[in-house]
Specification:
The protein contains 3 helices and 11 strands. By secondary structure, the protein is mostly beta strands. The chain has a single domain, classed as Coagulation Factor XIII, Chain A, domain 1 (Distorted Sandwich), CATH 2.70.50.70. Strand 7 and strand 8 form a beta hairpin. Bound molecules: 2-acetamido-2-deoxy-beta-D-glucopyranose and copper (II) ion. Keywords: Carbohydrate metabolism, Cellulose degradation, Copper, Disulfide bond, Metal-binding, Monooxygenase, Oxidoreductase, Polysaccharide degradation, Secreted, Signal.
């Protein structure tokens, strides 16, 4: 690539300049902000994405198949929480939040069970322009109606800034112990991997060309 072409590509965000990207590394629950990787499974791939749609690392990132590196935090159903990243998210694409109930202790849970989605941040279209929710912190609340118990709480940034290239998944999982919940059985659910397909319109979208609508990949959001 000629240097001038490279500069143009960098300006458009088409090329990743550094090998580094970003990682969700900090959790807040209510007014309590925890330390880096406190209650979040520590990944082993620095701040790199997962790019294979069939890899178990899509669940909780590379190195995140167990909770050996961290601990569990009590959360009340309805509590607000937030995931923060080391640097603000700077790749365009949707951000989603998922949960999966551990069959026993969440520390030992590999995320192979059912996942339900609790929230999506997609693009906003205005005046022919799409804007994406790219920021440092993503806040939502634990659904009030879900059952008490231990869960993985997962955030995913699906980076589709490079149309034609392989989309990138930036993922972290927190370990939470829900109290004060209800009796709901969340649906729809999906397995990870499996929830995201190479043919999903939200996976293949070209955000720079005739981009007027967008469907976030994965199951529909569960609402209490
Ligand atoms: C989860 O909360 C329940 C209810 O307070 C408690 O009995 C249990 O020990 C907690 N589990 C963990 C792993 O903290
Ligand atoms: Cu990147």
């Amino acid at each position: 690539m000629k240097f001038s072409t490279l500069l143009a590509a960098v300006a458009l965000g088409v090329v990743d300049v550094a090998s580094g990207h970003y990682i969700f590394q900090q959790l807040r629950v209510g007014s309590r902000t925890f330390g880096v990787y406190e209650h979040i499974r520590k990944n082993t791939n620095y701040n790199s994405p997962v790019t294979s749609l069939s890899d178990n690392d899509l669940r909780c990132n590379a190195g995140g198949s167990s909770g050996a590196s961290t601990t569990v935090v009590d959360v009340k159903a309805g509590d607000s929480f937030a995931f923060s990243s080391d640097v603000a998210v700077y790749h365009q694409g949707p951000i989603s939040l998922y949960m999966s109930k551990a069959p026993g202790s969440v520390n030992d849970y590999d995320g192979s069970g059912d996942w339900f989605k609790i929230y999506d941040w997609g693009p906003t279209f205005s005046g022919g322009q799409a804007s994406w929710p790219m920021r440092n912190s993503y806040e939502y609340s634990i659904p009030k109606c879900i059952k008490n118990g231990e869960y993985l709480l997962r955030i995913q940034s699906l980076a589709i800034h490079n149309p034609g290239g392989t989309p990138q998944f930036y993922i972290s999982c927190a370990q939470v112990n829900v109290t004060g919940g209800g009796n709901a059985t969340p649906s729809p659910t999906a397995k990870i991997p499996g929830a995201f397909k190479a043919t999903d319109p939200g996976y293949t979208a070209n955000i720079y060309n005739n981009f007027h609508s967008y469907t976030v990949p994965g199951p529909a959001v569960f609402k209490c």
